[in-house]
# Entry
Amino acid sequence: MLRSKRKPREQCENPSVLVLYGSPHKRGKTWQLYEAFSQAFPAGASVEVYSAYEERPEPCLDCGYCTRHEGCSQHDLDGFMRAFETCDIFVLVTPVYYNSFPAPLKAVIDRFQRYYSARFSRGIKPPIAKPRVAAILATCGSGDRDGLSEIKNQFKRAATVLNCTVAGAAFARGTDEAGVTEKALDGARKLGEKIFEDWRFE
Ligand SMILES: Cc1cc2nc3c(=O)[nH]c(=O)nc-3n(C[C@H](O)[C@H](O)[C@H](O)COP(=O)(O)O)c2cc1C
# Structure
């Protein structure tokens, strides 16, 4: 009989999930996609949602601080970055704005520069010790795929220095006319199930 080589994690381990939320609408279309994904969260999961529109992170100033020192010269994202470094699963949840991220969320992405500088200016490898898994959930008003693939590409590029593996993405296109379809919700649900099922194993 074939046996799986996968080793289940200890029962007591529950995943910590950090959600970076990029829509100005608390319960909009992008949130609907996230809710479908979140149905897969195990009962004991701890979930923290960082809403970029509520928190209004400062943009990166390219001041050069992180090329010489640990961290950032601005401290508004210290708590978020601590959570980002220690979470098990990171979920990027965003609408597409002009084929990219909404500005407050883009500010967070740019502030990941501290890790890029740690790696390439200060030689710290890896700049984040803990390997983590990421998922991307995104919506766009049109039927166009360009914005969604651009978001995925941009985050994947950032993730290479963040010790973060993008395990998958779920998208809802055409939300302006059709809203978030049952098919899109199902895709988000299935992605959540896959990610948490994989996470149950070392
Ligand atoms: C400023 C702005 C820019 C947008 N740019 C795009 C775009 O480039 N491509 C697209 O398909 N939809 C675009 N949209 C539509 C949103 O992506 C879409 O309505 C999204 O599902 C909204 O999600 P929400 O309800 O969570 O805010 C844009 C909307 C706004 C407000």
The mean pLDDT is 94.
